[in-house]
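Weekly structure sync, notes
Attendees: PL (lead), two postdocs, one rotation student
Agenda item 3: pending single-chain targets
PL asked that the sequence for the first pending target be pasted directly into the notes so everyone works from the same version. It is reproduced below exactly as submitted, 204 residues in total.
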Amino acid sequence: MQTASPLPRGLARLALAGAALAAALPAMAQAPSGTGAWWQPGPGRTTIGLNVGRSNFQGDCVAGYACDDKGNAFSLYGRNMANDLWGSQLGLVHMGRIERAGGSTRAWGLDLSLIGRTPLGSQGFGVYGKVGALLGHTRVTADPASGLPTGNRNGIGLSIGAGVSWDFSPKMSAVLEWDRYDFRFPGAGRDAFHTTSIGLQYRY
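Predicted structure, written out during the meeting:
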């Protein structure tokens, strides 16, 4: 039987959990001398970004039912760099809608990650990696005859990612990124979404 859980309530719970986790992070690191607290915005160190792309669901299909394992994904995030090499990022990620088992699977959440970045040459190119925690929410509907557990589930999972960036102006960057997000699903299961995306970032 499907459990009713309004979208705003699920996002509110995730936002509260994300705020609590973000509040605890400053105690894990010391601020560089003369730069203020590492997690605080600073001129040229703060970035907002939007990535759009495709998600690929890694869960199993149900025999006898159509199964589409790809969706339209996006992420909206804020990033703050403590220096040229590392920083932190908080973002909203959404994996889109996956059709399977006579219903649909949706997943979204708040992702809090540490960022490591290094430049490549002097033309504005760079590579970066991410690792963090995803506070995720899933919603699954299905044909009752499929046997697939349905309902809503919140949970914490691992997120990792890597990408290349191009600073094509003093304030704007383009990125190509791959990510993996682990979500918990109704029942006892945990499955991942992989995403490939392109995006724009604005520094201020």
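Discussion points:
- Confidence is low (pLDDT under 50) at residues 1-8, 20-36.
- The chain has one helix and eight strands.
Action: rotation student to compare against the earlier draft before next sync.
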